[in-house]
Amino acid sequence: MSTGPEKAFDYLVPDELIGEILPGRRVYVPLGRSNRRVMAYCVAVERKEYGQRKLKHVLAALDQQTLVSSHMLNMTQWMADYYLASWGQVLEAVIPAAVRGNAGTREVTLLSVPPQVAMQLATLKLTDKQQKVLTTLAAASKPMTPGDLADKCRVTQAPISTLRKKKLITSEVRRVSHAHFDDLDIERESAKSLSEDQAAALQTILAQVHAPQPKPILLHGVTGSGKTEVYIQAIQNVIDQGKQAIVLVPEISLTPQTKQRFASRFDRIAVLHSHMSDVERHWQWKRIASGIVNVVVGARSAVFAPTPHLGMIILDEEHDTSFKQDSVPRYHAREVAAKRAELEKVPLILGTATPSLETFYRAKQGQYELISMPRRIGNRPLPAVRTVDMRYDKTTGYRGAISRQLYQSIQRTLQQDGQIILLLNRRGHSTHIQCPACGHIVKCPHCELPLTHHITDGSTVCHYCDYRSTAPRVCPDAKCGYSGIRFSGIGTQKLEQEVKAKFSSYPIIRMDSDTMKKPGSHEAALEKFRNQEVRILVGTQMIAKGLDFPNVTLVGVINADTALHFPDVRAGERTFQLITQVAGRTGRGDLGGEVLVQTLSPDHPAIEAATRHDYALFAERELPFRRDFQMTPFAHMVRIIARGPAQASVELFMQQVGEEIQRFTAEKGGEISQQGPAPAPIEKLRGNYRYHLLLHSFDRHLMRAAVLHCREKITVPEDVLWIADVDPIDMM
């Protein structure tokens, strides 16, 4: 069950249901003293003695097909254990709601002629119409619906009903699909010749494809080194063996281009992403499960694709934080993919120009095979990256988001018919609304965070709870009422305005979560940019990764410091990755490229390493710091977060959790380091106060046991909710 008991229960299978109750299918069972009818998952069927126990009987089978294979059942059990979730919750996450709800299907009655009746057709005394119906149905290659049978025989339902009453025709109700979507119709491309680095990488991958217990592979290739072509040729080898491949991409904005690349090379691909309808998702799921799909391309949840003949899993941009689920079960697709690859004995390829430190460390320790691709295709040079020091200069004053150096580079690029990408990882117009007279800051009433001004509809928006209100014209403080309220800070909307004002004769497009809400909007925007209908692309991090446009010769990072000083162990790592990735969008053609990084921290190690395209330098500086403070990848981490409307209750509860973990650890003779409990960086969210506690330990099992101990030992106040996030990514 998705809710309720976390352990498995034993039930008796009635004789009439033997063969229908199978592992990986849903059933109805009685639960509790009241024997209420509930849906549950069958996870095993066994013949065994059960002694004097009184077991209840399974009531009915819900599914006619198996939803979860034996490998996937093992994986979901591992996920439940690792991520401190119930097995039922994991199963609900693995099987899409569209599949559980049979989206795009309907129940139909199917008619057939029993074999013993078919043998006596000539001796039965029937009317002409009845004889025609029975003969037609007996000759049919598969069961028919009453409507189809009546149409074929050109009769009413009367003779069919009579034959059913005489039991000469049997019927069954079955759920069938009525959905259909056309396959992608994309012009085919032939395989490309490989560079020396690509060929060596492919050979290493194929060696693991044929290994009895393949080892995960980190494909560390600089931006533009041709990782995708290596993926494609490795997948072709897998398909030639009659197997399937799963390709995971981090952002919806990557899916159109990735889909295009794979659809141009393979006959049958399935695409899974969040913008699909339930009917389409179910249809694709069934195609994948049938084995006719060669390649599955999708975001995080595609790691659960029901491929019966899996031969390879690929995570492109493996470092991306969107591979971590932010609701129960809080899994990381990289770790789940590694477990699935291990269980199904297939290779896992993790591709990126900026590996997560967890993956890089495992490769250095020999747990993963490391493949380096340090050169771009055609030996094109990596773009020159320069920092622009944005610290306030009294002689020049503030002149907007675009520095003089960046302005000149944009002007020069446009004159040379090049294209430009400008990255600002802050959406909205103004990120700060404050009264200069009394100092009042306009905040979200539910989160106590500054509201962002969105100029398109004149609203102020909280980007955490989506609270919206009209932008104030005067100070909201009744005691003040000053009319000169100030809108400061910069988001992508204000940047777009500034770019349009300074370069008004050139077409511009903005890509962020405000403009890319409609299905197909990513494809349409990128297609315009690809066709050079648009010269300047402004956007958030969704434009920083995976895009390949040879005519882009300038990239500008408007503010490299947006996440640099967050209270997060990965702040420097994320900044390095973002700058390196967006820098990689330029210089991919014959025209070369240039990158300008505007920053208030030009001497920060992460920014310095990114400007030099030097991942080794970044890792060399960052890993000792992580080791000294028992941080990932050297130690395991669990973040406990509690929330509730009363601050005192939440704080007291979290103190109890911290003390109980200390007691438990002392009793077991182990070591778990604690940071906190303390107010979370975002202390109030959606009307609830939030406290968090960060646990570090070299012993994952001890930490897991400590959290489970707290669940059993501590009484949680009614108004407090708490979660345990294993391997946390979000520290806010």
TrEMBL record:
Known catalytic reactions: Couples ATP hydrolysis with the unwinding of duplex DNA by translocating in the 3'-5' direction; ATP + H2O = ADP + phosphate + H(+)
Domain Helicase C-terminal: 470-640
Matches recorded under CDD domains: DEXHc_priA, SF2_C_priA
Protein keywords: ATP-binding, DNA replication, DNA-binding, Helicase, Hydrolase, Isomerase, Metal-binding, Nucleotide-binding, Primosome, Zinc
Binding site for Zn(2+) 1: 435, 438, 475
Biological processes per GO annotation: DNA recombination; DNA replication initiation; DNA replication, synthesis of primer; double-strand break repair
InterPro entries in the cross-refs: DEAD/DEAH_box_helicase_dom, Helicase_ATP-bd, Helicase_C-like, P-loop_NTPase, PriA, PriA_3primeBD, PriA_3primeBD_sf, PriA_C
Enzyme Commission number(s) of this protein: 5.6.2.4
Required cofactor names: Zn(2+)
SMART domains attached to this UniProt entry: DEXDc, HELICc
List of residues binding Zn(2+) 2: 444, 447, 462, 465
Any one annotated GO CC term: primosome complex
Residue ranges occupied by any Helicase ATP-binding domain in the UniProt entry: 208-373
Enzyme class of the recorded protein, top EC level: isomerase
Cofactor binding: number and manner: Binds 2 zinc ions per subunit.
PANTHER family reported for this sequence: PRIMOSOMAL PROTEIN N
Quaternary structure, from the entry: Component of the replication restart primosome.
Similarity field: Belongs to the helicase family. PriA subfamily.
Function summary: Initiates the restart of stalled replication forks, which reloads the replicative helicase on sites other than the origin of replication. Recognizes and binds to abandoned replication forks and remodels them to uncover a helicase loading site. Promotes assembly of the primosome at these replication forks.
Name this polypeptide is given: Replication restart protein PriA
Organism: Blastopirellula marina
Organismal lineage: Bacteria, Pseudomonadati, Planctomycetota, Planctomycetia, Pirellulales
